[in-house]
């Protein structure tokens, strides 16, 4: 028999264009907000920068305004600083 403490709820939201917003992308968005960097968030989550960028790009294209805005930053302007925008 399964105990109530063993049960988990996983919510996924289907966005237009077949894009899904689930716990993985939400965790990535939270990590970007905390780290203020896509690269640092990717490292924190153990994923490549390319994978993180592709996931964020997919989300940005799914909304009328980007959910993550980037600007040039880092040492000698080699990196990007990121900011999470509220989804309306």
List the helices and strands and how they pair.
Blueprint: E1 13-14, E2 20-21, H1 23-35, H2 38-45, H3 49-62, E3 68-73, E4 79-84
Antiparallel strand pairs: 1-2, 3-4
Helix pairs in contact: 1-2, 2-3
Strand count, sense and closure of the main sheet? 2 strands, antiparallel
Shape: globular
- The arrangement of helices and strands along the chain is EEHHHEE
- By oligomeric state, this entry counts as single chain
Q: How much helix, percentage-wise, in residues?
A: 25-40%
Average pLDDT rating:
83
- Total DSSP E strands: 4
Helix/strand/pairing category: alpha+beta
**Overall radius of gyration:** 15 Å
The number of helical runs is: 3
Unreliable segments of 5+ consecutive residues: none
Account of the 3D structure:
It is a single chain. This protein is of the alpha+beta class and 88 residues long. The chain has three helices and four strands; from the N terminus they run ββαααββ. It has helices spanning 23-35, 38-45, 49-62; strands spanning 13-14, 20-21, 68-73, 79-84. The strands form two sheets. It has a two-stranded antiparallel sheet with strand order 1-2. Strands 3-4 form a two-stranded antiparallel sheet. A hairpin with a 5-residue loop joins strand 1 and strand 2 (20-21). It is globular, with a radius of gyration of 15 Å.
